[in-house]
Fold this protein.
Amino acid sequence: MDKELQRTINELHIYEKKILKALKELGYEATPEKISKFQDMDIKAVMSAAGSLESKNLIEVHKVTDEVISLSQTGKKYAKEGLPERKILLLLEREESVPMGQIKEKAQLENSEVKIAIGWLLKKKWASIEKGVVKITPEGERAVNEEYKDEALLDKLLEKQKLLLFNPPQIIKEGFDILKKRKGLIHIKKEPKYTLKLTNKGRKLLEMGFDITEEATQLTHEQLKTGSWKSLKYRGYDIKAEHPDFYPGKKHPLRRIIKEIRKTFLEMGFTESRGTILESAFWNFDCLFQPQDHAAREMQDTFYIKNPKNVQLPGTDLVAKVADAHETGGGTGSEGWGYIWNIDVAKQAVLRTHTTCVSARFLAENSPPLKMFSVGRVFRRETITYKHLPEFHQVEGIVASEDINFRNLLGILKEFYHKLGFEVRFRPAYFPYTYLSTECEIYLPEKESWVELGGAGMFRPEVLEPLGVETPVAAFGLGIERLALKQLEINDIRMLYKSDIGWLRKLPITKGISLDE
Ligand code: FA5
C-alpha cells in the first residue's frame, strides 16, 4: 500500500500537491475559491487539478447548486438614484401634499414609473390619496430617514454584486421577497458551488509527506547541452492512466483490401492491367462468345448508355472473326450459336458488367506466355441485398501459357485465397466463354450458407481463336465486396458503403490487410 501511495505521490502534479497541502491547512475541506486564494492559484487550475485528484481517490468533490442574485441595469440605476416611491416620499416631505397630476413632473419620474411608484408608495403605507391629492402619512414621515428592506438589499447588491440565496443565505429575506415581485430589478441564476474534501487515502498520503518543488515537464535545448537536466526533478508518469479515445484518419477498409489483393497478385508474378468503365458490348459480351440474345445482355441486367450510344469497334479483322465464331464457330471446330450476328448490337455502349472485358482486350494486344490481373468497378441492374450491389468491384485474372490447365487454375485460386487467409470450395459452373468452368464459394456461418466468391474456367476456343491466341488460357473473375464479408467479419456488404463512422472507427487497421503494411 505504502509503495503504491509513494508511486501516487511521485506522479502528482505540483498543482495537485498544492491543493492537498492547502486542504490540510484549511481543515481538510474547502471551496476552490478558498484554495485558489490560499495558494495564489488560478481557479481554473484548481478545478482541473481537483478533477485529477478526485480520479485518484485522494479527494471528494461535492457539488451543490445554489441560486445567486445580482442587479439588472434598472436595479443598478435604482440602487444608485433611489426607488421611484422614495423620490415621491422626499417630494412629500418637502410639500406634504401634492395633486396626482403633478407627481410625475415634481418627483422627476418617467411616464412608465408613475403608476408603479404610487402603487408601492401605498403598499409601504408612506402616503394616502384623498380626492386626487397625495398626502404623506405618519409612517411616511418616519420612513424618510430609514432604509426600507428592499432598499437595504439593493444597496448590499450594489456593493457585493452577487449574493447567495441558500448556502448560506446572504440576503435580507423580506427585501428579497419584495424585489422578487418587482419586475426586472434582479436576476436570479443557478450556480454550482463546489467543496473539496480530503479522503482517508488523501490524509494518509499527506501523512507520508512530500515537498512541493518545481518539476521539469519540458526539456530545453540549453538544459540538454549543459547537462543541467541531470539535476532536475521529474514527475513520474502513469502509463496506464485512462485516456480519451483517439481515432486517427485511416483508409477505408475496402480500399485496404483492394491494396492487399493487388499486392498478392503482384507477389504471385502477375502484371496489372486496367480497362475503362464505359465499354462496348463487343468487348464486354461478343468477344467472350456471349450470344446477342443472352439474358445477361437484357436491360434488366445491363446498364446501356444513352450518350455516347455507341463505341467504336476495333479493326475489322477481329470483328469479322468474332462474327464468324458466333455464326458458324469459325475455325474452331464448333458450330457457333447459329444466328446472324449484328454489328450494331456489338457497338452499343454499356457500363461494363464484369472485368473479363479487360482480359479480352489484354489478350488481343499481348502474346502468351502471360499472367495478368486487373481490379475495377463493374455495374449491374441488381436488387440490393446483403450480397448484391448494383456497383461493385471485381478482380480479374488470366494465365496464358502452353502448359496451363484447369487443375493449375484451381491451384492459383486456392493459393490466392490462402494468402488472404481463408479456405474456399469449388463447384462446377457454367459461363458461355469457359470450359471447364467453376465457381468458388466460402461458408458464412451467420447466414448458414455458402456464398459465391467468383467464377473461373478455361477460355473456350471460340474466344481464343478470333483473338489469335494459340495457348490455353485460364481465367477468373472474383467479387471483392463478398471477399470483404469474410475479411472484415461482417454479414452484409452494404456495410461497406454505409459510411457508418462508429463501425469504421472501431474497425482495427489490421482487418483486411497484412501486418507489414
Ligand atoms: C463473372 O462476372 C465472370 N465474368 C467471372 C469469370 C471470369 C468466369 C473469367 C470465368 C472466367 P459472376 O457474375 O458470377 O461472374 O460474378 C463474379 C463474382 O462477382 C461473384 O461470384 C460475386 O462474388 C461477385 N458479384 C456478382 N454480382 C454481384 C453483386 N451484384 N454484388 C456484389 N458482388 C457481386
User: Anything to note?
Assistant: The chain has three domains: 2-66+191-208, 73-146, 254-506. The radius of gyration is 44 Å. Residues 253-267 form the longest helix (15 residues). The pocket of adenosine-5'-[phenylalaninyl-phosphate] is lined by residues 354, 356, 380, 382, 388-389, 392, 394, 431, 434, 452-457, 475-479, 481-482 (CB under 6 Å).
